[in-house]
């Protein structure tokens, strides 16, 4: 299953990157969200899947899932959320100020 | 000696203060005593019983950088030139530069230069030498740019700096190699370890790098181009830096390292070859100049070439002749520069085509110039020092020593002829300089000022220098034993004794001198007839053009190249970055056999997970193909919720909850944003771009998947999480291990994760609010 | 040595950042508080530096959880040296800020963001845990996003997006890489990683993951060919902000490369470190070419970030003690001089009313002091003795010649020339020439700008002329770096 999940995460990366390479700002933002999802899936997968119960200690259970990747993903999700929100507002403002959401039109010239 | 070297630099600090007196006393008067004092301090060392002195001062001892000063015959010669000419030039400048000029700047630069130049010739440590070397370039840059409101001045300053700093950096490269090979940074210690250097595989490189330094500084062909443009500097500077001292730093460097390289034939080939070439080319070109200082600049280049050539010959006699000529050149060229300055000052022009017939108006200047030019030409008269050095040059050109390499042997045959060729043109431009300026018809109406003789103060310095010309001419052996022999000894490493005589029989050298005078006179008299030759050689060919092209090419091509890839397109940037990472990382993975595949420790595959996995993948891909923006956002939500479901499968309830919440808010935000920007449209790309994007995306995604699989197949160690499971209850006080990790074991992460959120919140607030308030204004 | 000292350089600016968020509306109070706190923080950093230099590495196991399980902070000599340098730069920037920023921006949390940036940077230097490094990266990046967009000008927003996106991407790859490493090594503690990598001799997939990590840091450090995102966005925000970015952000990337590739991934140097030399060479060349390509003085300086990074990576690639000492020396030097230069060109374009070199001339008549500061910084940056750039460059070159890496050394020498040229262009064309009568001297602003710049340049000169004072420190650092056990022992002992 880990191999399949690695492939799924890889697909998320690919889809995310494709979106990032688009010119429309909204798509780029979507791309970053997908990319973070891919990263989180990788983290969880790298900690071995489905080995034991959720890491909430209970009597009688000795096998638990690896708690550390879960903690890392939690931290990372929150951070990604902050980033996405900022990026979103930034894109919104940039699109508004520059009157376009086409990144190819937001090149600027070399000498300004 | 440390103090003597640094005193000019220390004095600079007082210059701004001194210039307060500017109204009453010219600050040059104070400055004058600095080089004079240094001269008196060092002149004590002159004498037959002189032996080298080493003074050690630490600077950065742990990096082998010591402020060690080594005073031997060679450095003594230079120190006295620097301080002696320095004093005379300062004296001259008092009359040359008006009080309305930025004198404080001028003297600060000049004193800075003195320290730098003294440092160059006295340093025994290569790095200290290099430091002072660059300081000479810097002060020269500032002095050339003294009148920086002139375009030519800025151009000349930049040019001289680029070329000499280029040389300096090459030299530094050579120095570092020497240091690496010998393990010492002291020049004297290197000389003691010559075998190690000569045996090194890097020897050609070292020699090449050092000589680049020397040739650029001493304006050797083809790096000579900076010197004529350096003439934009005030004339005292030209006389001092660009004739007597700084340009001789390259000569000094070659002389300093001669003991190491003399046995190496390529040293002879390159140094003499370039020296002779410089001599010929520059003396030939000097005749074409119309600016007095231009003639003198090319003359200086050619004379430097001659000295360089003699150092390359490497014999004891040649080295002595080189040293002798260093002294002689300083006397006659220094005086000629000052005369040129006087003419400029009194007539307002340095254009030889406008000058002429000044003999009657400026008789003293004329007399001084007569001695200077005739000495430079090597006219055989017993009171002109130039003749002696020219004779010695011819003698040595005929007696180069043994050679084995064929190029060296061939050069031995050619050099005497080239020596005569160069000297003939030296003769011609000397005559041209003198007669063109002082004889012939007066063209006073073309001159900006009405010419008259300069004040005596201005004439004092050239008079002293011409005095030197005559004294050395009359008593050519005056300084031999007490002074010059020590210098020659320092270069050749052996004791040198030489007696110079005016008449020494009908030697080949004498006939060469006669040829020079005879042919030179002919060429000078009939110059109108052959001047057309300059239209063919060099014609429009010029090394200046090469430099200008190079520089503007640098600007243009760098701009073209940079603009070609820095085009501001985000897609381009990310595509390039991602492709690079993909290419290199994949290569490394293949190269190191990184890919591993192990299936013995995997979780079982179950259909619900598989289904959700496929759903997530399909949703992610579908965002690409969704034509409609809202649809894309919704599909993104689906992928996110699917991911939350996966977290549930994988025993991560906290994650699942967080993911749900975050995904919901993200989708809501995206929709909100979309709502506020209704003009958003779907944009389609060309097929080519789509294809490249697709390839890049698939490539990178596969790479990540493969690394992930390999990483999962290489679980070589037990994970630290086991510890968390064991201690969470007892030490952490909680049963939800993930929570305990977050708030306790990795509490720092959480603290700063919140910080990140906080900053994001404030930033978003600012992004929205700062605009609002701006609009309110 | 275990001590709470290690956390102070992170906690003080964090508290400062929070505190200043509350008083952001009272601009004058905020400004002065910021100055005071900045001085305090610099003082504390200096004290810790001294303490570490005397007593050796200070570590702190946060929350009392022993390494490798909890997050450990490791104030070794390298980390604390960089923290101190960071604070010195911060100090100069705080004093420069009030004259450079419009009051509006100042009151919009500038000082909060500033201190949080310092928090992130210091944290990144001090942490001994890879995931925690990621978190601190996010702190400093988030603060930098906040700062780069501060003001919300059209151009600024446009360039910020590029900046944010590239960094976001590299962060995502970063966190994924951590996951890979965790899978292979079962840990996120850097010292333990080092031990474990050594145990398996960096076999199999490890080098690949290492290279991926290198690219993550290389993107932040602006290495060839990953730097496209850097030059332009660095010219759009206020000079203080650009200065902070140039001095700190890329250098955190360089630091991370130094850390990971002297501590963890050191068993395949013939592959990894040789690759660095190549990349360093291209970074040097393309960087200087970029610097020559423009007449925008801010852009000239921004492009000059790359060759400097190239030098540092070259030192790491060569990987002997001399070269690594050189890289570290160069790192400290470059942080200071880049900050000074960005402040300087900021001041110049503010006072001249343009950052286009074609529209400037003769400024030396109005602003002689700034002109001379620029003149000196040009030589500092090009590595002319006796300034700080020379020492680092010399060590790196010595190291590379000693290893027989001739070509890269010659590239290094030549690029120094072009660096000098790119800066002297500003001096010759902007400051020399006929006086521009249209420029009215703004003495007050000029003075206010001059002091912080002079303060930084003073350190540059001191680092060069007084190299004897600092070189032993750097030698200790490179010794630590070449002997990873020292770091590992300091984490696991006690």
Automatic annotation (TrEMBL), chain A:
<keyword id="KW-0812">Transmembrane</keyword>
<feature type="transmembrane region" description="Helical">
    <location>
        <begin position="28"/>
        <end position="47"/>
    </location>
</feature>
<feature type="transmembrane region" description="Helical">
    <location>
        <begin position="6"/>
        <end position="21"/>
    </location>
</feature>
<keyword id="KW-1133">Transmembrane helix</keyword>
<protein>
    <submittedName>
        <fullName>Multicomponent Na+:H+ antiporter subunit C</fullName>
    </submittedName>
</protein>
<dbReference type="InterPro" id="IPR050601">
    <property type="entry name" value="CPA3_antiporter_subunitC"/>
</dbReference>
<dbReference type="GO" id="GO:0005886">
    <property type="term" value="C:plasma membrane"/>
</dbReference>
<dbReference type="InterPro" id="IPR039428">
    <property type="entry name" value="NUOK/Mnh_C1-like"/>
</dbReference>
<keyword id="KW-1003">Cell membrane</keyword>
<dbReference type="Pfam" id="PF00420">
    <property type="entry name" value="Oxidored_q2"/>
</dbReference>
<keyword id="KW-0472">Membrane</keyword>
<comment type="similarity">
    <text>Belongs to the CPA3 antiporters (TC 2.A.63) subunit C family.</text>
</comment>
<feature type="transmembrane region" description="Helical">
    <location>
        <begin position="67"/>
        <end position="90"/>
    </location>
</feature>
From TrEMBL, chain B:
<dbReference type="InterPro" id="IPR001516">
    <property type="entry name" value="Proton_antipo_N"/>
</dbReference>
<feature type="domain" description="NADH:quinone oxidoreductase/Mrp antiporter transmembrane">
    <location>
        <begin position="123"/>
        <end position="415"/>
    </location>
</feature>
<feature type="transmembrane region" description="Helical">
    <location>
        <begin position="6"/>
        <end position="21"/>
    </location>
</feature>
<dbReference type="GO" id="GO:0015297">
    <property type="term" value="F:antiporter activity"/>
</dbReference>
<keyword id="KW-1133">Transmembrane helix</keyword>
<feature type="transmembrane region" description="Helical">
    <location>
        <begin position="104"/>
        <end position="122"/>
    </location>
</feature>
<feature type="transmembrane region" description="Helical">
    <location>
        <begin position="630"/>
        <end position="650"/>
    </location>
</feature>
<feature type="transmembrane region" description="Helical">
    <location>
        <begin position="656"/>
        <end position="675"/>
    </location>
</feature>
<feature type="transmembrane region" description="Helical">
    <location>
        <begin position="603"/>
        <end position="625"/>
    </location>
</feature>
<dbReference type="InterPro" id="IPR005663">
    <property type="entry name" value="MrpA/MnhA1/PhaAB"/>
</dbReference>
<keyword id="KW-0915">Sodium</keyword>
<keyword id="KW-0406">Ion transport</keyword>
<feature type="transmembrane region" description="Helical">
    <location>
        <begin position="128"/>
        <end position="148"/>
    </location>
</feature>
<feature type="transmembrane region" description="Helical">
    <location>
        <begin position="76"/>
        <end position="97"/>
    </location>
</feature>
<feature type="transmembrane region" description="Helical">
    <location>
        <begin position="28"/>
        <end position="47"/>
    </location>
</feature>
From TrEMBL, chain C:
<feature type="transmembrane region" description="Helical">
    <location>
        <begin position="108"/>
        <end position="127"/>
    </location>
</feature>
<feature type="transmembrane region" description="Helical">
    <location>
        <begin position="73"/>
        <end position="96"/>
    </location>
</feature>
<protein>
    <submittedName>
        <fullName>Multicomponent Na+:H+ antiporter subunit D</fullName>
    </submittedName>
</protein>
<comment type="similarity">
    <text>Belongs to the CPA3 antiporters (TC 2.A.63) subunit D family.</text>
</comment>
<dbReference type="GO" id="GO:0005886">
    <property type="term" value="C:plasma membrane"/>
</dbReference>
<keyword id="KW-0050">Antiport</keyword>
<feature type="transmembrane region" description="Helical">
    <location>
        <begin position="275"/>
        <end position="292"/>
    </location>
</feature>
<feature type="transmembrane region" description="Helical">
    <location>
        <begin position="406"/>
        <end position="428"/>
    </location>
</feature>
<dbReference type="InterPro" id="IPR050586">
    <property type="entry name" value="CPA3_Na-H_Antiporter_D"/>
</dbReference>
<feature type="transmembrane region" description="Helical">
    <location>
        <begin position="36"/>
        <end position="53"/>
    </location>
</feature>
<feature type="transmembrane region" description="Helical">
    <location>
        <begin position="240"/>
        <end position="263"/>
    </location>
</feature>
<keyword id="KW-0813">Transport</keyword>
<keyword id="KW-1133">Transmembrane helix</keyword>
<dbReference type="GO" id="GO:0015297">
    <property type="term" value="F:antiporter activity"/>
</dbReference>
<dbReference type="GO" id="GO:0042773">
    <property type="term" value="P:ATP synthesis coupled electron transport"/>
</dbReference>
């Amino acid at each position: 299953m880990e191999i399949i999940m690695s492939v799924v995460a890889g697909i998320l990366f690919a889809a995310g990157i494709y979106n990032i390479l688009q010119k429309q700002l909204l798509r780029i933002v979507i791309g970053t969200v997908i990319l973070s999802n891919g990263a989180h899936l990788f983290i969880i997968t790298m900690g071995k899947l489905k080995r034991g119960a959720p890491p909430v200690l209970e009597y009688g259970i000795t096998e638990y899932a690896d708690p550390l990747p879960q903690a890392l993903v939690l931290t990372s999700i929150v951070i990604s959320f902050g980033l996405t929100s900022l990026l979103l507002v930034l894109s919104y403002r940039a699109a508004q100020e520059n009157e376009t959401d086409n990144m190819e039109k937001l090149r600027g010239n070399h000498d300004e | 000696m440390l103090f003597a070297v640094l005193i000019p630099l220390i004095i600079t600090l007082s210059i701004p203060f001194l210039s307060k007196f500017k109204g009453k006393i010219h600050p040059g008067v104070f400055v004058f005593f600095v080089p004079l004092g240094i001269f008196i301090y060092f002149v004590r060392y002159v004498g037959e019983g002189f032996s080298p002195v080493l003074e050690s001062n630490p600077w950065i001892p742990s990096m082998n950088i010591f402020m060690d000063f080594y005073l031997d015959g060679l450095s003594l010669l230079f120190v006295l030139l620097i301080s002696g000419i320095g004093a005379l030039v300062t004296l001259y400048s008092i009359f040359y530069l008006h009080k309305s000029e930025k004198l404080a700047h001028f003297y600060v630069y000049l004193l800075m230069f003195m320290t730098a130049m003294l440092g160059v010739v006295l340093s025994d440590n290569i790095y200290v030498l290099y430091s002072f070397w660059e300081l000479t370039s810097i002060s020269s840059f500032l002095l050339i740019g003294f009148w920086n409101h002139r375009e030519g001045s800025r151009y000349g300053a930049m040019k001289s700096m680029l070329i000499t700093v280029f040389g300096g950096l090459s030299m530094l490269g050579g120095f570092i190699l020497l240091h690496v090979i010998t393990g010492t940074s002291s020049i004297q210690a290197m000389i003691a370890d010559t075998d190690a250097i000569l045996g090194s595989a890097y020897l050609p490189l070292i020699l090449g790098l050092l000589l680049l330094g020397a040739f650029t500084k001493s304006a050797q062909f083809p790096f000579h181009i900076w010197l004529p443009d350096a003439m934009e500097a005030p004339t005292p500077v030209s006389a001092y830096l660009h004739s007597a001292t700084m340009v001789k730093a390259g000569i000094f460097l070659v002389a300093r390292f001669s003991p190491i390289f003399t046995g190496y034939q390529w040293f002879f080939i390159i140094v003499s070859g370039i020296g002779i070439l410089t001599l010929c080319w520059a003396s030939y070109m000097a005749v074409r100049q119309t600016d007095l200082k231009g003639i003198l600049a090319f003359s200086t280049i050619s004379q430097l070439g001659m000295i360089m050539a003699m150092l390359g010959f490497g014999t004891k006699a040649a080295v002595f002749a080189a040293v002798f000529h260093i002294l002689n050149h300083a006397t006659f060229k220094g005086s000629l520069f000052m005369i040129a300055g006087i003419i400029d000052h009194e007539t307002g022009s340095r254009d030889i085509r406008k000058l002429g017939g000044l003999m009657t108006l400026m008789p003293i200047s004329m007399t001084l110039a007569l001695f200077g030019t005739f000495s430079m030409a090597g006219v055989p008269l017993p009171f002109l020092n130039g003749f002696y050095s020219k004779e010695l040059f011819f003698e040595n050109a005929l007696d180069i020593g043994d050679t084995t390499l064929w190029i060296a042997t061939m050069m031995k045959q050619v050099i005497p002829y080239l020596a005569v060729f160069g000297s003939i043109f030296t003769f011609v431009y000397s005559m041209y300089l003198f007669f063109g300026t002082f004889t012939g018809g007066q063209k006073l109406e073309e001159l900006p000022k009405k010419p008259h003789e300069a004040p005596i103060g201005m004439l004092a310095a050239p008079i002293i220098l011409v005095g030197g010309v005559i004294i050395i001419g009359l008593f050519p052996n005056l300084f031999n034993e007490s002074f010059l022999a020590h210098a020659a000894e320092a270069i050749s490493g052996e004791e040198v004794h030489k007696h110079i005589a005016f008449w020494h029989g009908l030697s080949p050298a004498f006939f060469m001198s006669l040829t020079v005078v005879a042919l030179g006179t002919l060429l000078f008299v009939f110059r109108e007839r052959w001047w057309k030759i300059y239209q063919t050689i060099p014609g429009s060919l010029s090394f200046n053009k090469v430099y200008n092209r190079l520089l503007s090419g640098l600007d243009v091509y760098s701009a073209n190249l940079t603009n070609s890839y820095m085009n501001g397109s985000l897609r381009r940037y990310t595509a390039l970055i991602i492709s690079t990472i993909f290419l290199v990382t994949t290569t490394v993975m293949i190269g190191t056999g990184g890919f591993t595949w192990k299936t013995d420790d995997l979780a079982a595959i179950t259909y619900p997970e598989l289904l959700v996995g496929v759903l997530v993948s399909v949703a992610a891909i579908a965002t690409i193909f969704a034509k409609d923006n809202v649809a894309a956002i919704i599909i993104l939500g689906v992928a996110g919720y699917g991911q939350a479901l996966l977290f549930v499968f994988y025993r991560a309830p906290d994650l699942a909850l967080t993911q749900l919440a975050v995904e919901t808010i993200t989708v809501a935000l995206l929709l909100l944003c979309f709502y506020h920007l209704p003009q958003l449209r779907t944009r389609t790309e060309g097929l080519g771009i789509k294809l490249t994007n697709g390839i890049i995306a698939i490539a990178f995604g596969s790479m990540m998947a493969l690394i992930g699989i390999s990483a999962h197949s290489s679980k070589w160690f037990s994970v630290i999480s086991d510890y968390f499971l064991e201690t969470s209850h007892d030490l952490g006080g909680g049963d939800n291990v993930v929570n305990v990790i977050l708030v306790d074991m990795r509490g720092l992460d959480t603290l700063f994760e919140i910080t990140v959120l906080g900053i994001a919140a404030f930033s978003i607030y600012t992004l929205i609010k700062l605009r609002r308030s701006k609009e309110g204004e | 040595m275990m001590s709470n000292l290690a956390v102070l350089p992170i906690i003080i600016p964090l508290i400062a950042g929070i505190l200043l968020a509350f008083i952001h509306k009272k601009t004058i109070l905020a400004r002065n508080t910021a100055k005071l706190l900045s001085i305090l923080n610099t003082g504390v950093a200096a004290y810790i530096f001294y303490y570490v230099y005397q007593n050796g590495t200070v570590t702190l196991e946060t929350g009392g959880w022993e390494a490798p399980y909890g997050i450990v902070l490791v104030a070794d000599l390298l980390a604390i040296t960089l923290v101190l340098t960071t604070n010195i730069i911060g100090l100069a920037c705080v004093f420069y800020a009030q004259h450079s920023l419009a009051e509006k921006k100042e009151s919009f949390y500038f000082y909060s963001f500033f201190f949080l940036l310092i928090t992130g940077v210091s944290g990144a230097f001090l942490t001994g845990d890879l995931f925690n490094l990621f978190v601190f990266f996010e702190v400093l990046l988030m603060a930098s996003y906040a700062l780069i967009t501060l003001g919300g000008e059209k151009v600024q927003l446009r360039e910020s997006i590029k900046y944010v996106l590239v960094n976001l991407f590299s962060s995502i790859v970063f966190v994924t890489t951590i996951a890979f490493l965790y899978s292979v090594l079962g840990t996120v503690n850097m010292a333990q990683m080092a031990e474990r990598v050594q145990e398996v001799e960096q076999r199999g997939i490890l080098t690949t993951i290492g290279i991926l990590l290198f690219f993550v840091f290389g993107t932040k450090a602006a290495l060839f060919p990953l730097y496209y995102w850097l030059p332009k966005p660095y010219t759009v925000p206020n000079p203080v902000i650009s200065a902070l970015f140039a001095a700190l952000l890329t250098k955190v990337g360089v630091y991370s490369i130094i850390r990971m590739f002297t501590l963890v991934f050191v068993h395949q140097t013939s592959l990894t470190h040789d690759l660095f030399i190549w990349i360093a060479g291209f970074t040097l060349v393309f960087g200087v070419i970029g610097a020559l390509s423009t007449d925008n003085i801010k852009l000239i300086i921004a492009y000059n970030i790359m060759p400097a990074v190239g030098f540092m990576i070259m030192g790491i690639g060569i990987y002997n003690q001399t070269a690594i000492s050189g890289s570290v020396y160069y790192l400290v030097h470059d942080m200071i001089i880049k900050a000074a230069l960005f402040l300087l060109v900021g001041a110049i374009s503010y006072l001249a009313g343009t950052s286009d070199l074609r529209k400037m001339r003769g400024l030396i008549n109005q602003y002689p002091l700034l002109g001379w500061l620029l003149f000196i910084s040009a030589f500092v940056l090009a590595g002319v003795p006796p300034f700080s750039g020379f020492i680092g460059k010399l060590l790196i070159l010595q190291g590379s010649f000693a290893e027989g890496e001739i070509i890269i050394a010659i590239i290094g020498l030549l690029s120094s020339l072009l660096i000098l040229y790119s800066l002297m262009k500003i001096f010759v064309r902007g400051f020399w020439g006929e006086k521009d009568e249209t420029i009215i001297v703004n003495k007050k602003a000029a003075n206010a700008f001059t002091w912080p710049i002079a303060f930084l340049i003073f350190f540059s000169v001191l680092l060069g002329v007084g190299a004897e004072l600092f070189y032993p420190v750097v030698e200790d650092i490179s010794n630590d770096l070449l002997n990873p056990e020292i770091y590992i022992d300091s984490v696991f002992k006690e």
